[in-house]
Amino acid sequence: MIKKTADRRVVRTKKMLRDALAELIEDKGFEAITVCDLTERADINRGTFYAHYKDKTDLLVQSENDLIEAVLEIQSGLVEMSMAELLDCYVNNKPLPFAVALYRYLGDNGRFVRALIGPKGDPGFTPRLKEVIARNILENVLSEKYRENMTPLTKYYMAYYTSAQLGVIEHWFESGMNEDPEEMARIVLSIMFMRPGDAIEMRPTILDRVGMQYVI
User: Fold this and answer.
1) Cα dist. 89→32, 73, 95, 135, 176 in Å?
2) Of 82-91, 117-126, 161-170, where does mean pLDDT reach its minimum?
């Protein structure tokens, strides 16, 4: 019981420091932040800070790593879904489970993610997030023959799809996250199966087109 209480205290302390880091990044940028700024904003003492992190860069790196690892774990849920299950979600306008989990996690950590990808954030974070999305496409979306034979078209497809996915996430943050995770999951699934010229709507109108764009 004592250990569980201590673990909860550590989690709470790290969250307070990460929230403080996000607020300060948005206020004045990472380079201008000091450890004193962080401890004052989080309302903890310096000893507590140094019990968990070496310096502000260590706090940033560990926090980013935790976020990336969580996104990777959530995205691994896509590989467990069959095309039939994907089509069932699309045709019946049901939220895609792994996308719900992804947007719920991003929403819960919205302040931190928004700070990282913002103009005063870490310029190295967005490329890392794009790499995670690209890895998901490579491992879970592309069929095996395209993974083994990366033609220029395949590479451009991945670049296009990766930027599009990140763009949706950024727009969600910038617009105030008005849609809940379930609605975002429906929107993302509709976009995944939408072809140029199709009506821009949530439910399919031409079912024989379903699945043609998803796996290149």
Assistant:
1) 47, 21, 6, 23, 26
2) 82-91
What is the largest distance, in Å, between two alpha-carbon atoms of the chain?
63
pLDDT at 151: 82
* In contact, 155 and 188? CB cutoff 8 Å: no
Instruction: Express each pLDDT in 10-63 by its tens digit.
Output: 999 999 999 999 999 999 999 999 999 999 999 999 999 999 999 999 999 999
pTM recorded for the entire structure = 0.78
The DSSP symbol for 207 reads G
As given in the structure block, the two tokens for residue 196 are 């140029």
Dihedral sign for Cα 158, 159, 160, 165, please: positive
Rg (the chain; Cα; Å): 20
| Tokens standing for residue 150 | 């990366």
**How many other CB atoms sit within 10 Å of the CB of residue 52?**
14
